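Re: the request from the purification team.
They wanted to know what the chain is likely to look like in 3D before they choose a buffer screen. I agreed to run a prediction and write the result into the notebook, where they can find it.
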Amino acid sequence: MGKYLLKRLIHGIFSIIIVVGIVMVLIFSLLDRKGIFVNDPQYTKKSGNQKIVYEYQQWEKYGYVEFDTYNDYINSLIDLGEISEEEATEAKKLGMTDADDSEIVSKWVTIFTDYYEKQGYTVERLKGKTTTSGVIIEANRQNLIAYRDLNLFVRLWEFFTSVVEIDTIHYVTDDIEDRGIKFTFFDPLAGGKFSPAIIGNGTKHKYLLYFDSKFPFIHQNLVTFHIGKSYSLYEGVDLVTQMTQNQGAAVVSDVIYPTGVTGQSSLDLHSATYSPGQVSDENMRLFGDNYTNCRTVNSSLSMVSNSFVIGIIATIFTYLLGVPLGILMARKKDKLIDNVGTIYIVFIMAVPSLAYIFMFSAIGSNLFGLPNHFGLESNPKWLIYVLPIVSLALPSIANIMKWLRRYMIDQMSSDYVKFARSGGLSEGEIFRKHILKNAAIPIIHGIPGSILACITGAIITESVYAVPGTGKLLTSAINKQDNGIIVGLTMFYACLSVLSLILGDILMAIVDPRISFTTSGGKR
């Protein structure tokens, strides 16, 4: 079993890499990269060479190219001390053509060109334009740029090597005192109460490990996952942060600052990260150091939490109702309950999902007064979850009923069932001990996948009910060509798929000991 799982895990990792690679090829090679400017208000304000430079700057940010300009290159040489500011000023005065360049300009243009062309960049000179009076238009001022498309393997390497970030005491480059990590049984934010915590100095996060009263009660910032960054939808926000941070209005509560000062704030002080530079007197009074950047505490659930709450409750109802109804249909084959169940299954299969979700929404809203939009107020608040859960559970119930009925009817005609009947076992015993056990194996294998799928959300259901969950993230990212989110979600979905298959195999082997996943010769 162990060797099998290791082999499955290795295959899964390769599958994830291949899937992410294919998506990267589709995004960065086959789609028109100018699509990222469709909803960019800044792009329409640019003109001339400014517009060209802006395009390449955005393409670099989105991961299409590596890009640099001649002026930025000269500025970097100033910082390195390789050119004086006076010479740099002269070097930046590009002529209208190569022939118009001064000796100093020609020297540094040649250095710039050779430096980047040796690295496989394309170097292009953007010519300047003048008005009829001979004045250079600022938007069309001459420039020299270097760019190259990112290699797929380089892009994959950079992506996967940045997925996991481990916080260390060397994260902060400033000269600070007492750099290190300490463990305390009494978290300063807990007001002297027993509350273990690991606190860092020189790390990105101040609190690497801490306890509080919020589920799951123990939290850590030592290891952070980065699977993508948004540029269109959320303007530079990390995807994991966007999916996991709470939403809604800020919640103000009584807090104890690290220095012992008490007050009211909506800040999550345990999320404090290092802020370089001079700290204001007020922040020093409250925080006592440079760890002043904190997230806010918000009133509503995060995207993942909203999707998971709806999904897990729907999944529970799916198995609680679908399994017994499927068994009943198989045992009462061709009778009333079987015919009614078949009609329900056919209805769910025949009607487009969007249509019956709108139908359930209308019925629930008009007949039962249930809220059908997450922007509406509901009392109690949990009523807003009823219709999305029902809409998500009903088709899943039909699916379980259909397959369990089919598996059980197939098993009923097996030789071992005939042998059990000849041995004098009752029909109830045959169904419980033999038919159900064998027929349930494929259903059991899908349980981990059903649970993990709750995290990803349901695209159509969440769109209809305006659920602020993860289900609509992918479609929104595709519409705005937010490459970071698309690639990140691809990896996220691929990891969940591999994990669900492995957990399904383990669960199946636990339920049925006959399944051992052994190799030939009986070796595990």
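For the purification team: Residues 130 and 137 are 6 Å apart (CA to CA).
Please add any questions underneath this entry.
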